Every structure is written in C-alpha cells, then in structure tokens.
Amino acid sequence: MPEIKRKIYDKLLDWKMESNGRTAILIDGARRVGKSHIVEKFGQNEYKSYILIDFFRVENEVKNLFDHYLNDLYSFFMYLSAYFNVKLYERESLIIFDEVQFFPRARGAIKYLVADGR
Predict the structure, then answer these.
(1) CA distances (Å), 24 to each of 1, 48, 61, 82, 96, in order?
(2) 23-73, pLDDT tens digit by residue?
(3) 89 with 52: CB under 8 angstroms?
(4) Rounded to an integer, what is the distance from CA 1 to the centroid of its chain?
(5) Which of 37, 40, 80, 81 has the highest CB neighbour count under 10 A?
(6) CA neighbor of 34 nearest in space, from 82, 98, 86
(7) Is 34 exposed, middle or buried (0-12, 13-18, 19+ CB in 10 A)?
(8) How far apart are CA 78 and CA 81, in angstroms?
(9) Other C-beta atoms within 10 Å of 29: how many?
(10) How far apart, in whole angstroms, are the C-alpha atoms of residue 94 and residue 3?
C-alpha cells in the first residue's frame, strides 16, 4: 500500500478506535486520488459489513429514504439494508456517503444517524 494511502488508513483506524461510533468522519481532498477506494477497503477489512452510497449515481429510491424515514431510523436502516442487499449489524457496520455534495439532505442527516448510536 503506498505511503499516503497507508497514512489515511491509519487515521481511519485511529478514528474508529477513538470515536467508538460516536462521530462521523469527513475525508476531503482532490478528486480521483483514491479516497473512495481506501474507505471501501477500510469498510471491507474493519467492519462486519458496509454500504457505500454514491450520491452521484444512486437511484432516487435511496434518496427518498432520507426524505421519508429519518424520523423512523429502524425503517431507514431496514430499507437501506434491503436495497443494497447487505445485512447491517448494530455497531459493526459502516455506511459510507460518497459524493455527498450532490445530496445535501444526506449530509444534514449525518448528525441524526450518528446520534442514533447504531
């Protein structure tokens, strides 16, 4: 793994250990340098399951979950799990928002999703 990617991965490991699910993390940087790739590898290696939501390409069906189910997070996670066909494990799954600048509603939802504690 190249040095820069290893440093980012190490920072993600630190975040996981220190936050214990109490915070989200934002990875900002130039386009097309591998941010999504390294975060997806992190999800594969460090969590029981993960979902990657790319808001540039995702269907409106997923976007609608943010409009209709943020007050019912049990249903929100259930529908998300079904849509991506990924079992979500409480406190052992990672949800990655990629290209979140294309869907500000999701960015605003992060605080509620983290506060939920799952």
Answers:
(1) 24, 18, 24, 23, 10
(2) 999 888 777 778 899 999 999 999 999 999 999 999 999 999 999 999 999
(3) no
(4) 22
(5) 80
(6) 98
(7) middle
(8) 5
(9) 10
(10) 24
